[in-house]
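Replying to the earlier thread about multi-chain prediction with a worked example.

Input:
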Amino acid sequence: MRRKGCTAMKVRTAVYLLKQGLRGLWRNRIMGIVSIFSIACVLIILGIVFILILNINNLAESTKSQFDSVQVYLKDDLKPDRIEEIGEQIEKIEGIQDVYFISKEEALERMKKDWGENGYLLEELESNPLPNSYVVKLQNIEHTEQVIRQIKNIQGLEEVKYYKDVMDKLLKITKFIRLTGTIIIAILIIISMVVVINTIKLTVIARRREINIMKYVGATNWFIRWPFVVEGVFLGLFGAAIALGVLGLGYQKVFDLITQKIYILLTPYMMPATLLMDDLLVIFVVLGAGIGALGSIFSMKKFLNV
Amino acid sequence: MIHFLNVTKQYGHVTALSNVNITINRGDFAFLVGPSGAGKSTFIKLILKEIHPTSGKIIVDDVDITNLSQRKIPYFRRKLGVVFQDFRLLPNKTVYENVAFAMETVSASPKEIRRQVPMILGMVGLSGRAKLYPHQLSGGEQQRVSIARAIVNNPSVLIADEPTGNLDPDTAWEIMKLMKQINRRGTTIVMATHAKEIVDLMQQRVIAIEDGRIIRDEKKGVYGYEG
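Result:
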């Protein structure tokens, strides 16, 4: 009997607490609207920062893929089976995506093609000055140094070439973007939390008496807290919804403008709106609800000490 | 019912209660008297587990509350009813809602609430006032509402901190009659008060506290202070 009564009680209590929360939201609606818009503003800025980071990251990633190959030039006097051996050795190194061989002849052909009209100049050569080489594609640009070190250990190499400067710069840029982005987002989250804390605090103060009496008749802290958490979560979610709407429309506009009118070249580097919005939806729902819930828990901490 | 064993409470260097030993039995009606700052409030706050004793042991209704965990305090408080000098009613709720609120807070079922609240309101003599708001009531009526709220969950102890402090003598006397009636139903009552006439007329147990010590404990006592 006790068990059955217990579940019924829990459902009833949950409904009661939800109702109380919504009532608080309604009673406090003016401040509520103000904080919904504050949260929306903060989330919009946060979303813009997020979109910028994603796009720059995207750009950096696709640039990286153009520079993630290493040329391994072989000594000229190697026997064919040694050349094959070297290829196998390279393949064994961790962090390598792909290895392919370019023979002297192929290399010369390519050069001729690259030179285009002036290719005939190369016909004059008596012997082929270009070495045999392997082109190594890296899995991750961040591990370049280690891979290069291991390649250099192999006997019979003339030279190992890669885009060191470009890679280093790209790495630095992406790291910088990630770091500043994280910091800015963290600051914005804190700001929105403060906004919620202040709003909920008004409700809490307005209901100080009620909380006090509840403590005396034996309400648990969570029983007292839940309505405020509900209120906070709703504020957060409303704010998130507005921010999402504004950003969705805004990004689509900017996306269209850039891809259709200004820089068609940039198109492949910009993430399509639908893809981005799915990410933002999840992030905003979690952030909005989280900010609201935590904000209300913080804002009533001291009122529960009776 | 309520046992204090060598209870001492210090705030920093100030000793509010020192080595208090007392037993209040089930069904007792005990007045707590003494000058302001003598330790009456500390005594009451200790029973309510609002504060924790510096040393000693407190047992209320067979529960050792000396080291009661924070999580269990709410459930312990449901054994107690509290009445304050300033009534502490919710101004935006009706009389009925104010009393029902105490039951909602401990997750009583709507059925129980609908049965219990009118009964308790009848008992405190406010049946006809259920739909009014606190500001539409007299002081005495407001205190009746707060008493109704305190006993609606059937506590075994009713704690009253100067319940007649804001009331004129006639009204105060009405409230005391109600308290006595509640006591007759078996509820233990601990009441801190400065009301000399009431204490002298009621002829109940009187516990006098002065400078944090119990200086007098009489079965049918009198107030014993001038004014």
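Chain B touches chain A through 23 residues (CB under 8 Å).

Feel free to reuse this layout for your own posts.
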